[in-house]
Amino acid sequence: MAENAGRVAVYLDFDNIVISWYDRVHGRNAYGKDRQRITDDPNDAAVTERLRQAMIEVGAIIDYASSFGTLVLTRAYADWSSPVNAEYRSQLVARAVDLVQLFPAAAYAKNGADIRLAVDAVEDMFRLPDLTHVVIVAGDSDYVPLAQRCKRLGRYVIGVGVAGSTAKSLAAACDEFESYDSLPGVARPVKAETTTTTTTKDKSATKTAAATRKAKAAAKVDDQGEATALLERALRLGHDKAEADEWLHSSAVKTQMRRMDPSFSEKALGYRSFSEFLKSRDDIAELEETGHERLIRLRETSS
C-alpha cells in the first residue's frame, strides 16, 4: 500500500457494480429477471426489499481508494434517473463524487459508460500529469485497454470488482485487483434457508439449489488450490534470485504473488491476514516470525 503520497483518480461504472452485486446477492442473472419489475413498480414492497438487500456500500469503495493517497477526483457513471441508482445519489454527493449522467439509447441497451469513462480517464491523465494512481471500479473486459493504457502512461492501476462477475482479463491487466466482497465494511451476502415442500416443482428447486451449493464449494476448493500453487511459484522465483534456502520477506512474496495474479486476496479466501494464509500452507512453506519481521521459505521436502 502506498504511504498516502499518491494522487488518486477513481472511476466507477456504477451500473456495472450495482447489477453485479445484485446478481451476487440474489443469484445468477437475478437483475435481468427483475429488471422490468423494478422499472414498472420500484415502490413495491418486495422490490424495495430485494434492492435493500443488494445495496452497495459506497463508502467502502471510496475509503479503499483513499488508502492509496489523496483523492483528486472521483466520478460515477450511470443513468441517475433509474430508481436503482437514484437511491445512491445523496450518498455519492456526500462523498464528493461527481455524478456523470448517461442516457441509454434504448430501454435495454448499454449506456456507453465504458466509452465515456475511458475517454475521461485518458483525458484526465494528460490534463493532470501528477496523477499517480487510477482506480477502476468495474468488472467488464471492455476496460482492459484502458487499464493497459494507464499503465503505459506510468500510472499504478487498481481494479475493484464483484467476485464471480469480473473478467479475469481485467484483473490481470491491473497492477492490483481487489474483490468488492473483501473490502472492509462490506458484508458478504448470506442467503436464508427456506422451508421445502413435497411438490415436484419444489423438489426440483431444492435439487438445483443443492447442485449450486456443491458447485460453489468446488469452486472454493479450486480457488484454494490455485492460491497454493501461486504461493509455491512465488517462493521458487524468490529462491531463484537468491540462495536456494534463503529466507524471504513475506511482504516481498505477497508482492510477487500480486504481480503474477493481481486478483489474489487472502481475505477473499477467508483469511484475516497474509500470515494466517501462510500458516495454512505449512506443508509447503516455513514461516519464521521474529518481532515485526516475518520471513518465509519453501520447505525442503517440496523442493
Write up this protein:
- Helices cover about 45% and strands about 15% of the residues.
- The protein has about 300 residues and is α/β, with parallel strands linked by helices.
- It has a six-stranded parallel sheet, sandwiched between helices. Strands 7-9-8 form a three-stranded antiparallel sheet.
- It starts with 5 loop residues before the first strand and ends in a 5-residue tail after the last strand.
Biggest sheet: strands side by side, in what order?
3-2-1-4-5-6
Shape: globular
Order of helices and strands: EHHHHEHHEHEHEHEHEHHEE
Our estimate of the beta-strand percent is 15-25%
Kindly report the average pLDDT value.
84
Amount of helix: 40-55%
Number of helices: 12
N-C termini distance: 31 Å
Radius of gyration: 22 Å
Structural class: alpha/beta
Offer a concise description of the structure.
This protein has 303 residues and is of the alpha/beta class. The chain is 47% helix and 17% strand.
Output the keywords.
12 helices; alpha/beta; 303 residues; 9 strands; 3-stranded antiparallel beta sheet
